[in-house]
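Two proteins, back to back. First:
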Amino acid sequence: MTERSDTPGRPDLRALAPNEAQRERVVGAVMGGLAGRPQRPPERSDAVLEAVAFLPSRWVATVAAAIIILSAAVVLLTRDPPPSPEVVITAWADRQHVPTNGELLSAFLGYTP
């Protein structure tokens, strides 16, 4: 690639191009060779199904999902609701507290820092 060539330009390889009969002969030989070879069975690509097959049974998965959903519901329902802005502003006034921007956002928009 880095060698210098004495003859400029590309070599003309059109004389090596096969004609239609030669092309058909090569393609026919390849196709004939393929027809005589044994075919491999297709590879299985159902890894997800194999992973699910290791589960003991469907009812175990259903019970596990129900437990996860119930525990999430209990966590969400037992949280204390945030105080109303009136309660927060009254507490600030009683303590003579000047709220920061984050505290104002938390009180009025429900933003939690």
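And the second protein:
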Amino acid sequence: MSDWFDAEQRIERAQRFFESRRWSEALAELEAALEINPDQAAWHANRGTVLDQLARHHEAIEAYRRALELEPDDPEVLSCLGIDLARTGQYEEALAVFERLAHVDPDCEPAFCHRIAIYGRMGDHERAEEMFYMAQQISDECPHAFAHMGESLFDRGEYARAIYCWTRALKLDPQYPLAKQRIAEAYRRQGDLESARQYYLAQFRDDPGNVNLICDFGDLLVQMRDLEGATAKYRLAAELDPRCVRAHSMIGQIAMRQGRIAEAVRALEAAAGVDERYVGVRVALGEALLAQGRCVEARHYLQKALEQDPNDAAALSAIGECLLKLHCPEEAHTYLERLAALRPDQADAHCRLGLCLLQLNRIEEAVARLERARAMNPASLTAIRGLLVASARAERWAETRRLIDRALALDPDQPELRRLRRLLPACRIRQFCRRLLAALSVPTP
């Protein structure tokens, strides 16, 4: 009899711990009580609830299953079990549980509402919509039903209808979690960036410590070309979570775009220190180090990036430039040839390969690549300058003069080209003298 009394006492203490959100202590008391009396369905269900609060969802599922063995038709426990099965990706089992719940209680709106979300995640949007209308017949004031339907519509690209659903969810529950953020994302997909900004701002006011939200807001500001505003958001995210690799990475990439190379390197090194495998970090850091002249370090990160993704065009381009600066044109050629094959319609890819071929003194191949680049982009100064070098090496002075004039027409502020144009007559004289001496030379008997 004392054991049973002890079990009840532990349940009372568990309840107090539960109310004060001391989940671990509540769990310990519940488990001690269940060791004494394991046949209490409500205690197993409460244990499942506490395990959910501790994010131990697989264990919670087992607790709910045990509760249902003792009381098979408890609607609340069925609902909790279905939610956890869906949360852990066990969609077919979750659907079976909610169907069972609907059979137990045909007027239970959550039995249909939760199936909207599950069918949406499975990509069966027709069934999701069917569940939505069935849920509406029971209650048309459930914000969850509208929110889940919004997700399904968003996944189908029906952004206007998704916005309507999330707006309805907000009318029913003005504090509905992340609804404003999802509306912002839908407006962003529609290209209505100002409306998206307003909803991101509203969500930020409600949840100022949400690091992912802050980074999403920063991404929108980048899209709106407000780089200063975006940088401020990413810095806030990095302050709130110093291990937010996304924030450090974006701070670095914006700094690179603005020509603040040293700051870019610092931010990207911070990102790499958290997770250098995060998308784009190795390439961006390699490019920043290359811009700083630290070619050996840049090469290390770019090679790592290409191990991760051998077809990363940005990494191929940067490592080609890096190897040329390190006087390794043969190795650079391997990467740049791959880049040109990967991006046959991009002038820059052919241009870079052409410059590499110039360093290898493969003049005709270089000219072919550079001409191809110029045909794609007639305003490419890099291609014109490469062709200029090739024509000068071949002492084709008329072509050299024409290319100089073309380059200066595109960008008059090039003093080295103006100086070269002034030197062209002297080049022609030296060429004439060499030919004259060759013609007048007499073989030695």
